[in-house]
């Protein structure tokens, strides 16, 4: 089936054709679930939180004016939901510098990672990032959201988003470096 | 960090497999949405003023009307009854007088309480139905 724009489905839902919301759920379920999973660290809770985020989005759809991207709006709902849940449960929302940033991180050559291990290595490194930095990297590189859009999702200022994103990227490189070293040791 | 590395990182990350929810995720979300929709429709279609409210109101109006008729036209009714049944009419008239003198302002107090209760029930119904709609 031909992929339609988000606005097409949103207009249909707004016009009373609720069924069309399923296309939106299909399209964004993985990323919404990934954010929830990263924050809540439990499949069942993450699934419930992701469902809740979609239901909340559906209920507030009439407030979506289309001035920003629908995905930005949806991620903001998801991110806020997850943070509220973490606060409610008094869980730790990792945004601290648990990983030391190494100087050589900037010089890392990504091509040095064997092709067959790349997806696995990236996923392992992403899993080690704190929740907020994971979200920043995911939105910027995976979802190709702009700094402005990310700042709307995370409620950080644009300059703060830039700084945090830069640090997150360096941290990701540091983790990747360490992972590659470990892998090298196991091979040797 | 140079731009080329940034592009490479983007390419790397875009190949990354995201976490996936269970297979019936979309169905579950849609079922919840449909359930919420039907609950909302039910609340909207529910009458704010239920049967109970109207029964209480009608009884109250009937009570007020009865009090009004008895207190204002009681003498006229007495005279008509008196013409037909002089002794019985006198007895009835005395009965009315003694009954209402014993009651005093009690009917008005009851009426006041009934009005108050009806108004409170009415306000509560409106508030609770609105809060369900906006929840």
From TrEMBL, chain A:
Residue ranges of every copy of the RNA polymerase sigma-70 region domain listed in the record: 24-90
All residue ranges annotated as the RNA polymerase sigma factor 70 region 4 type domain in the record: 120-172
Any one Gene Ontology molecular-function term assigned to this protein's record: DNA binding
Keyword Transcription regulation: yes
Keyword Transcription regulation: yes
InterPro entries: RNA_pol_sigma-70-like, RNA_pol_sigma-70_dom, RNA_pol_sigma70_r2, RNA_pol_sigma70_r4_t2, RNA_pol_sigma_r2, RNA_pol_sigma_r3/r4-like, WH-like_DNA-bd_sf
Keywords: Sigma factor, Transcription, Transcription regulation
A single BP term in Gene Ontology: DNA-templated transcription initiation
Protein family: Belongs to the sigma-70 factor family. ECF subfamily.
PANTHER family: RNA POLYMERASE ECF-TYPE SIGMA FACTO, RNA POLYMERASE ECF-TYPE SIGMA FACTOR
Name by which UniProt lists this protein: RNA polymerase
């Amino acid at each position: 089936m031909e992929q339609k724009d988000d606005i097409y489905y949103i207009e249909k839902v707004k016009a009373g054709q609720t069924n069309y919301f399923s296309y939106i759920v299909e399209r964004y379920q993985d990323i919404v679930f990934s954010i929830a999973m990263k924050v809540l660290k439990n499949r069942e809770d993450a699934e419930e939180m992701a469902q809740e985020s979609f239901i909340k989005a559906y209920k507030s759809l009439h407030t979506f004016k289309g001035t920003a991207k629908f995905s930005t709006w949806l991620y903001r709902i998801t991110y806020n939901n997850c943070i509220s849940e973490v606060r409610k449960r008094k869980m730790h929302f990792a945004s601290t510098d648990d990983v030391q940033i190494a100087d050589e991180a900037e010089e890392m050559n990504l091509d040095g990672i064997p092709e067959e291990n790349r997806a696995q290595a990236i996923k392992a490194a992403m899993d080690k990032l704190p929740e907020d930095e994971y979200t920043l990297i995911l939105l910027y590189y995976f979802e190709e959201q702009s700094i402005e859009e990310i700042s709307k999702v995370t409620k950080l200022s644009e300059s703060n988003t830039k700084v945090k994103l830069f640090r997150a990227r360096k941290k990701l490189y540091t983790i990747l470096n360490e992972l590659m070293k470990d892998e090298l040791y196991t091979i040797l | 960090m140079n731009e080329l590395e940034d592009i490479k990182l983007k390419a790397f990350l875009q190949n990354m497999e995201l976490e996936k929810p269970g297979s019936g995720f979309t169905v579950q979300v849609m079922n919840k949405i449909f359930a919420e929709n039907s609950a909302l429709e039910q609340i909207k279609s529910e009458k704010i003023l239920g049967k109970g409210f109207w029964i209480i109101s009608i009884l109250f109006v009937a009570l007020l009307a009865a009090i009004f008729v008895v207190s204002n036209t009681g003498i006229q009714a007495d005279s008509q009854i008196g013409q037909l049944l002089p002794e019985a009419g006198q007895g009835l008239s005395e009965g009315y007088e003694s009954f209402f003198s014993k009651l005093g302002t009690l009917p008005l107090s009851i009426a006041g309480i009934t009005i108050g209760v009806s108004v409170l029930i009415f306000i509560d119904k409106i508030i609770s139905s609105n809060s369900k709609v906006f929840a």
